[in-house]
Amino acid sequence: APNGQAQQALLRAASGLNVAAGCPLFIEAHGTGTALGDPMETRSLAQLLSSRCEALALGSVKANSGHAEPAAGGAGLLRLVVSLVGDSAAPNGQLRALNPHVRSSLEGASCALPTQLAAASVCAPVDGRGCAGGVSSFGYSGTIVHALLQVGGEARGAVSTPPPPPRYYSRRSYGWLDKVHPLADGVDAAAPSGLVRFSSSAGGALRSLVADHVVQGRVVFPGAGYLEMARAA
């Protein structure tokens, strides 16, 4: 089970590093999505950070794409990079009703849980460096990790990279060799010109694959499934 004291100890140790970690602008939470884990995580963040921060954008990429399982931490890092470079707080897209225990744990704290893309407050650079953000990731048996990222003062808001060259994928089907993948068992003929769009029925084999992934009484398609769907296509 999550350990609030261990989380605070880890964040306190990270705050002693030579970065502007004392007051991060963004926190990408692990976001277990459980009645126990989320209040413990938010309470730890609020108790340690809210007293020293004027504004803290709190979110989790899982609220948008689901749980990517082994890739979840990497997805959180990518979203934090986008937030820091773009000076924008990414939304918690599926947040509709806040867990009352999370609400009480954040009472009096300077934390925001945006549900739409929001402009971040301007962060004053520390010693010529840019703002920092953190990503939390929890594993089995109480393993916890917190990564800190910081944008250089000159690079912040001024990063310009050329778009990558287009990649063209081709898919050939050999019915006598491969079974139809349950996540890409048909091609949508109505797709716009130049695009190939695969589809799959939500019932049958697909539902049987995810029938045990139940969150609060509802079958939820896992984030890792989207990665598998892209690979299958």
From TrEMBL:
Keyword Oxidoreductase recorded: no
Keywords linked to the UniProt accession: Phosphopantetheine, Phosphoprotein
Domain of life of the source: Eukaryota
SUPFAM superfamilies: Thiolase-like
Gene Ontology BP, a term: fatty acid biosynthetic process
PROSITE patterns listed in its UniProt record: KS3_2, PKS_MFAS_DH
Keyword Heme carried by entry: no
InterPro entries in alphabetical order: Ketoacyl_synth_C, PKS_Beta-ketoAc_synthase_dom, PKS_DH_N, PKS_mFAS_DH, PKS_NRPS_Biosynth_Enz, Thiolase-like
Domain Ketosynthase family 3 (KS3), residue spans: 1-151
GO molecular function, one term: fatty acid synthase activity
PANTHER family in alphabetical order: FATTY ACID SYNTHASE, SI:DKEY-61P9.11
Name of the protein: Uncharacterized protein
Organism: Emiliania huxleyi (Coccolithophore)
